[in-house]
């Protein structure tokens, strides 16, 4: 028995692990995929999680902060089990992302088990646990390495499994190979070189001398980032993992072009929760990022033209053009800030030709740094200048997200920006989008933030300010909306799902039903097994996703929450006596008319310390407050979500808020921003007509 098994687990956890081993061995009998596990050096090995892949058990690699990871190769399907060192670790639930995979694990004490169909990049956490202080496990199931490189391959700088100290400094024409299980403590410096390949399944860990209290990570020099390029050309980086433990920009490229990142994993975490950008372009471009994973602690992708410090002269010095960047088929996450940022106040440079497509945005920053965090932000307000054009976001799936777009450039100009086929997979954005300044040519085609196609500013919502041009809106090419059986939905009850799209042989319908089941076809019957919910959190809320595509390559997604429960909560009689709650108490009482029997999910958006209560059901509480940064006032807006099966009629809602100004914006009234979703109700703010009364 391995030493890490005996040393690192309690007796009860060992029992769970042995059960997992037996379960995995039974599953392995049905699985023929070849799995390759790589050794993990003792210096970075952790038994905080033990992972079984088709019955083969391994510890994980401690990456950075509270993040853990495992790389392995698989030629096809595999059964995965994860056993935590704490027996009760998963008691409050578990979340496996990206959501498009529809994974709900099977839970047995400290162990969760699920199946994958092939190569995939996963984030595994407890529900809502995706900020800087969170514990996160990243699993990377790679396709088998087809390079054929071994230690005997001529002309290759080969790093074997084990620990290596010292940075990698390739020369022009070099091929560098990091074997699976190789861990290099240092940096990859691609300094004024060309025609370099860095391949393999190994890992580079960078932990530099940067201050944890301020940004020194911008400095452009060797051994200051996990990967740095200076005037590099024709570079291929394929399969490796880069980890950053200190406060520095992670992958920094200056005036470099013809760059390919493929199946690259970049993970950053550490003190300060800032300035661990995923990838930065200081001039240059012609870059492809394909099938990659980034967990950042700042902007995931940022374009600046140059960066030589925060002094006035350095900030205002004109930078070089950034152009022709493609991000595709990737999985993206950050603890703070934006997915894509262009510019900074006082920065002067041009950029054009950026495409992001077919990617999962699992986690976006919550809050603001001058402007709210977004999928795409240009923040040059007030003195930045430059022409930024030809930006396109296509087939993007938004999971935990803050806002869609923040374009704030008073000086010329930002134009020709397209959002096409964008879907919120499980909830709304927290704050409105903004176009401000010399902005024009913005189009939103098939954008669905949870309520269906956005066809107006109010649908998104979006504010047009300070001379910005009005954006255009179009419907999605395909309709992925669907209906389901109404009334009380109990475990074991047959539920009918039907897509609203036309019956057409060229259309394909794929359902992910939130309980780990999938199905195909325009119409189906399904039985839910329990009231645990998709996140195994006991909420009864199941996230049902429908993916529709056609033979021409068009895609559409739709998401709805179903509530599976054993009974309906009865209606109440509204209290028509004079309100006695003082107006300054921070408590608001309302009665809302539920239109039909069934399961409803209520979402309160607020930056305050708050609780949401419905009838006599145990209230839901706000998450821990998250202060905004860079001088932005107050805390980030966050959701409070509550699901319940309710009878038709009046139900009492009580909202308690405290702690200053609420940064959530309610364009419909002065009250809290409360949304609902249920039978025949897409996610939307509760209309005033649904309320009986409210306390003053």
UniProtKB/TrEMBL annotation:
Protein name according to UniProt: PKD/Chitinase domain-containing protein
Signal peptide extent: 1-29
UniProt organism field: Acidipila rosea
GO terms, biological process: polysaccharide catabolic process
InterPro entries (UniProt xref): Ig-like_fold (IPR013783), Pectin_lyas_fold (IPR012334), Pectin_lyase_fold/virulence (IPR011050), PKD/Chitinase_dom (IPR022409), PKD_dom (IPR000601), PKD_dom_sf (IPR035986)
Keywords, in A-Z order: Carbohydrate metabolism, Polysaccharide degradation, Repeat, Signal
Limits of the PKD/Chitinase domain: 479-567
Keyword Signal: yes
